[in-house]
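User: Could you walk me through two proteins back to back? I'd like the raw sequence and the structure tokens for each, with a short line separating them so I can tell where one ends and the next begins.

Assistant: Of course. Protein one, sequence then structure:
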Amino acid sequence: MPKRFINPSLADVTEDIAGAVPLEIIQKWITSNKTKKLHEDILKNYLVEGTVVASDSAGLSKLSEELDLLEVMKIVSHPKDLVYKYGSEIGGVGIGIWAADNTEMFYPKSVSPKLIYEKMQQVQKELENFSLHIGMAIHYGKFIKIGGGLFGDEADFVEDLAENHTEGGEIKLTKSFSKLLNDKHISNTI
């Protein structure tokens, strides 16, 4: 077997998903007295409300031990492509840079929660027999959207939920999303 020069686990990089913070925000903050009210005033134009679906691969470390980097990168792309395909069909927008195995999409509040959930179920169904599975977290809330990324406590919450508290093939829903979904038959709420 030839020696590998690149470690395939590099496909699971931690990458800041946002672009640059607009200079005007930084200047307003630096030249101010840094009050809570000013903080809120600066960010109010960047607040968005809606649903975020975050995902993370399960079993990538094992695959990266068995395959070379190019094979891993190809395998990691398939679930991301499905998340984007189904999400963008209903008005979802990709958030940040999808450089690793994670995805994040934002859906404005005009998009039906039931439709979002059904589309993500379709993604999971298509991945049932694929070599790499993903866990998903779905959360409805208010986020700060700057530089193509989402920030704030609720953004951190849904990202952490997908990254650290889901398993492959699973979709976890937060209480705020479940409340909008209003389906008593769904039990995967956190």
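----
Protein two, same layout:
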Amino acid sequence: YRSRIATDETLIPMAKLTVQNDRADSQPPSILNARFEPAEITAGESAKLIFQAVDNDPAFSPQHFCERALHREWFRHMRTDVPKNAEIDPTEYAIHACTSPKKRPDGAWEVAVTTYIGLPPGDYSMDLRVKDLVGNMSKPETVLLSVNSTQPTDTVGPKIITIKTDRATYKPGEKGSVLIQATDDLSGVSDHAAYRIRSFCRASMVTHNSVEDDVNMNDRILICDGTLKKMNNDWYALDFQLPDQVPSGEYFLPEISLADNVGNRTFLTSAKNRTSVGNYKDLYNELETNVPVLSVNVTN
């Protein structure tokens, strides 16, 4: 291993773990009879993803399941709030199946699928895979869901109006919330921070008073809640926990992103330096917003 501090040349031997098992599972599961029921719906309706899975483990259940069906021509539905010459295309119109599969009486697995108004009509394709307990991955099985819609396609990301915390000053060890006021014109703001990842840190607050070579100062206050909590009106909350030993000082939130329920993402960013002030910029259209960069104080 090498230290993340550039001036530290200490080399630490890699850690190794030896596992002995005469009954090792190296056989991947296989998928049978995968389908959506119904196979054709209208945007805003629900469906079910149903499949059978066979594995050498009689107690098999799909692990860390989170799949998506991507619109076959998602790139033809252009964002109206992003320049046509933008280097980043922040949208992939998709339908997500990110809940744990339930075992049905007939032995098949069932996953609830929710769709939203604002999805573009067309065929959505899923390369379905399942993984067993030790990580063996099945071969993909392609499943199609046809979506009809007479509604306009949602081509605008959520509008972030305000970002603040529940108070301006915190003490080490306290809990807090980042409060976000946001709206979306059609499909609504998604409460998922990201798909395919169940446990992660959405963002972190960084310090204004960074010490040279102390790269950990950027990880002092992590925001590791995967759910955006809906409050009243257009307000949402992200909870965070301050460590007991967090250094005192002023911290700011360098970036934040929200997605709507059809996949349009808005990403606000700021200058990542010790004197980051002013307003956030929209990463995708490079325009400055009127949302001030969030800043909080930690005091003993």
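The longest strand covers residues 46-54.

Let me know if you want the two compared in more detail.
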